[in-house]
Protein backbone atom coordinates (compact mmCIF):
# COMPACT_ATOMS: atom_id res chain seq x y z
CA UNK A 1 0.00 0.00 0.00
CA UNK A 2 2.94 2.33 0.61
CA UNK A 3 3.81 2.15 -3.10
CA UNK A 4 0.34 3.38 -4.06
CA UNK A 5 0.75 6.30 -1.64
CA UNK A 6 4.07 7.23 -3.21
CA UNK A 7 2.56 7.00 -6.69
CA UNK A 8 -0.25 9.31 -5.59
CA UNK A 9 2.18 11.81 -4.02
CA UNK A 10 4.43 11.70 -7.08
CA UNK A 11 1.45 12.43 -9.34
CA UNK A 12 0.35 15.35 -7.17
CA UNK A 13 3.89 16.79 -7.00
CA UNK A 14 4.29 16.46 -10.77
CA UNK A 15 0.95 18.21 -11.35
CA UNK A 16 1.69 21.03 -8.88
CA UNK A 17 5.17 21.64 -10.32
CA UNK A 18 3.63 21.87 -13.79
CA UNK A 19 0.98 24.26 -12.51
CA UNK A 20 3.63 26.32 -10.73
CA UNK A 21 5.74 26.56 -13.90
CA UNK A 22 2.75 27.74 -15.90
CA UNK A 23 1.82 30.18 -13.13
CA UNK A 24 5.33 31.66 -13.08
CA UNK A 25 5.03 32.19 -16.83
CA UNK A 26 1.58 33.81 -16.57
CA UNK A 27 2.35 36.02 -13.56
CA UNK A 28 5.57 37.26 -15.17
CA UNK A 29 3.45 38.58 -18.05
CA UNK A 30 1.26 40.78 -15.87
CA UNK A 31 2.99 41.61 -12.58
CA UNK A 32 5.29 44.63 -12.47
CA UNK A 33 6.98 43.54 -9.24
CA UNK A 34 8.01 40.21 -10.80
CA UNK A 35 9.26 42.06 -13.89
CA UNK A 36 11.27 44.40 -11.66
CA UNK A 37 12.86 41.46 -9.81
CA UNK A 38 13.66 39.74 -13.11
CA UNK A 39 15.70 42.70 -14.36
CA UNK A 40 18.56 41.53 -12.13
CA UNK A 41 18.65 38.12 -13.85
CA UNK A 42 20.66 37.63 -17.05
CA UNK A 43 18.87 36.92 -20.32
CA UNK A 44 18.43 33.17 -20.79
CA UNK A 45 18.63 32.45 -17.05
CA UNK A 46 17.08 29.04 -16.31
CA UNK A 47 15.66 28.14 -12.90
CA UNK A 48 14.63 24.60 -12.13
CA UNK A 49 12.78 22.93 -9.28
CA UNK A 50 13.19 19.20 -8.85
CA UNK A 51 12.60 16.37 -6.43
CA UNK A 52 15.54 14.17 -5.47
CA UNK A 53 16.65 11.57 -6.24
CA UNK A 54 14.80 11.18 -9.55
CA UNK A 55 11.43 12.80 -9.02
CA UNK A 56 9.41 15.30 -11.02
CA UNK A 57 10.83 18.66 -12.05
CA UNK A 58 10.00 21.88 -13.86
CA UNK A 59 12.07 24.65 -15.38
CA UNK A 60 11.49 28.25 -16.44
CA UNK A 61 13.69 30.49 -18.58
CA UNK A 62 13.98 34.28 -18.61
CA UNK A 63 13.17 35.59 -22.07
CA UNK A 64 13.02 39.36 -22.22
CA UNK A 65 10.91 40.65 -19.35
CA UNK A 66 9.13 37.37 -18.58
CA UNK A 67 9.66 33.74 -17.73
CA UNK A 68 8.85 31.01 -20.22
CA UNK A 69 7.83 27.59 -18.88
CA UNK A 70 10.14 24.89 -20.29
CA UNK A 71 8.29 21.86 -18.99
CA UNK A 72 9.54 18.92 -16.96
CA UNK A 73 12.26 17.45 -19.18
CA UNK A 74 14.89 20.18 -18.99
CA UNK A 75 18.39 18.80 -18.24
CA UNK A 76 19.57 19.77 -14.76
CA UNK A 77 23.16 20.40 -15.87
CA UNK A 78 21.98 23.20 -18.19
CA UNK A 79 20.03 25.07 -15.47
CA UNK A 80 21.62 28.11 -13.83
CA UNK A 81 19.73 27.55 -10.60
CA UNK A 82 18.32 24.30 -9.21
CA UNK A 83 16.03 24.26 -6.19
CA UNK A 84 16.01 20.67 -4.95
CA UNK A 85 13.56 19.02 -2.61
CA UNK A 86 15.46 16.34 -0.67
CA UNK A 87 12.72 13.76 -1.21
CA UNK A 88 9.17 13.23 -2.41
CA UNK A 89 7.66 13.67 1.06
CA UNK A 90 9.27 17.10 1.50
CA UNK A 91 8.10 18.22 -1.93
CA UNK A 92 4.59 16.95 -1.26
CA UNK A 93 4.37 18.80 2.05
CA UNK A 94 5.60 22.11 0.60
CA UNK A 95 3.69 21.95 -2.67
CA UNK A 96 0.40 21.05 -0.97
CA UNK A 97 0.75 23.92 1.57
CA UNK A 98 1.27 21.63 4.55
CA UNK A 99 4.66 23.21 5.23
CA UNK A 100 6.04 26.65 4.41
CA UNK A 101 8.99 26.98 2.09
CA UNK A 102 11.05 28.82 4.69
CA UNK A 103 10.40 26.07 7.26
CA UNK A 104 11.37 23.38 4.75
CA UNK A 105 14.59 25.25 4.00
CA UNK A 106 15.32 25.65 7.73
CA UNK A 107 14.77 21.91 8.20
CA UNK A 108 17.14 21.13 5.30
CA UNK A 109 14.34 19.67 3.18
CA UNK A 110 15.29 22.03 0.34
CA UNK A 111 18.72 22.83 -1.04
CA UNK A 112 19.90 25.18 -3.75
CA UNK A 113 22.54 24.73 -6.43
CA UNK A 114 23.63 27.97 -8.05
CA UNK A 115 24.10 31.64 -7.22
CA UNK A 116 22.34 32.43 -3.92
CA UNK A 117 21.64 36.03 -4.92
CA UNK A 118 19.78 34.77 -7.99
CA UNK A 119 18.08 32.15 -5.81
CA UNK A 120 16.73 34.94 -3.58
CA UNK A 121 15.43 36.82 -6.63
CA UNK A 122 13.72 33.67 -7.89
CA UNK A 123 12.29 33.03 -4.41
CA UNK A 124 10.80 36.54 -4.28
CA UNK A 125 9.20 35.90 -7.69
CA UNK A 126 7.85 32.56 -6.43
CA UNK A 127 6.37 34.27 -3.37
CA UNK A 128 4.46 36.67 -5.59
CA UNK A 129 3.30 33.80 -7.81
CA UNK A 130 2.06 31.86 -4.77
CA UNK A 131 0.17 34.95 -3.58
CA UNK A 132 -1.65 34.88 -6.93
CA UNK A 133 -2.41 31.17 -6.66
CA UNK A 134 -3.49 30.78 -3.03
CA UNK A 135 -6.28 32.42 -1.08
CA UNK A 136 -4.91 34.77 1.60
CA UNK A 137 -5.46 32.31 4.48
CA UNK A 138 -3.41 29.62 2.68
CA UNK A 139 -0.76 32.09 1.51
CA UNK A 140 -0.33 33.09 5.16
CA UNK A 141 0.69 29.50 5.96
CA UNK A 142 2.96 29.02 2.97
CA UNK A 143 4.68 32.41 2.86
CA UNK A 144 6.65 34.16 5.56
CA UNK A 145 5.32 37.50 4.29
CA UNK A 146 2.32 37.64 1.98
CA UNK A 147 2.86 40.25 -0.75
CA UNK A 148 0.03 42.79 -0.84
CA UNK A 149 -2.48 41.94 -3.54
CA UNK A 150 -4.18 45.36 -3.65
CA UNK A 151 -4.91 46.26 -7.26
CA UNK A 152 -3.91 42.81 -8.48
CA UNK A 153 -7.33 41.15 -8.35
CA UNK A 154 -8.05 41.52 -12.08
CA UNK A 155 -4.54 40.32 -12.87
CA UNK A 156 -5.12 37.35 -10.57
CA UNK A 157 -8.29 36.49 -12.49
CA UNK A 158 -6.43 36.77 -15.79
CA UNK A 159 -3.64 34.48 -14.52
CA UNK A 160 -6.14 31.89 -13.27
CA UNK A 161 -8.05 31.91 -16.57
CA UNK A 162 -4.84 31.51 -18.60
CA UNK A 163 -3.29 28.72 -16.50
CA UNK A 164 -4.98 25.85 -18.35
CA UNK A 165 -3.71 27.24 -21.67
CA UNK A 166 -0.04 27.69 -20.69
CA UNK A 167 2.50 25.42 -22.35
User: What characteristic shape results from the CA principal axes?
Assistant: globular
DSSP strand content: 15-25%
- Helical content band: 40-55%
CATH superfamily: SCP2 sterol-binding domain
Task: Tell me what the CATH architecture is.
Answer: 2-Layer Sandwich
Describe this structure in words.
The chain has 167 residues and is an alpha+beta fold. The protein has a single domain, classed as Nonspecific Lipid-transfer Protein, Chain A (2-Layer Sandwich), CATH 3.30.1050. The chain is 51% helix and 17% strand. The protein has seven helices and five strands; from the N terminus they run ααββββααβααα. It has helices spanning 2-30, 32-38, 88-95, 101-106, 116-133, 136-142, 153-162, and strands spanning 46-51, 57-63, 66-71, 81-85, 110-113. A five-stranded mixed sheet has the order 3-2-1-4-5. Helix 1 (2-30) crosses helix 7 and helix 2 packs antiparallel against helix 5 (116-133). The chain is globular, with a radius of gyration of 15 Å. It starts with a helix and ends in a 5-residue tail after the last helix. The model has no long low-confidence stretch (mean pLDDT 86).
Give the arrangement of secondary structure elements.
Layout: H1 2-30, H2 32-38, E1 46-51, E2 57-63, E3 66-71, E4 81-85, H3 88-95, H4 101-106, E5 110-113, H5 116-133, H6 136-142, H7 153-162
Parallel strand pairs: 1-4
Antiparallel strand pairs: 1-2, 2-3, 4-5
Helix pairs in contact: 1-3, 1-5, 1-7, 2-5
Amino acid sequence: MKYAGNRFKRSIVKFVLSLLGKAIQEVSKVDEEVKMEMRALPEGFVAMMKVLPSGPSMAVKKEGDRFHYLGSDYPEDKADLVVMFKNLESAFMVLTAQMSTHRAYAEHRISVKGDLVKAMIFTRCLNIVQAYLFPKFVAGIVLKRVPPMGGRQMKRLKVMLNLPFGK
